[in-house]
Design a protein that fits this description.
66 residues; mainly alpha; RNaseH_sf; Tc1-like transposase DDE domain-containing protein; nucleic acid binding
Length: 66
Amino acid sequence: LNPIENVWAELKKHVRARRPTNLTQLHQLCQEKWAKIHPTYCGKLVEGYPKCLTQVKQLKGNATKY
């Protein structure tokens, strides 16, 4: 439900795809991807939060398609 969790998931997906082999690579990948996350992406996540929350409430906590 939390928009920042979606941002972290995006970062995690990117890191897993690149498969860093050491801490230095991991740090570099995270910094690169973080810098590429556009503010509009974050804004859309925040804007969609009320809709997502409504769906969760309607489904009594079950998973949503959102």
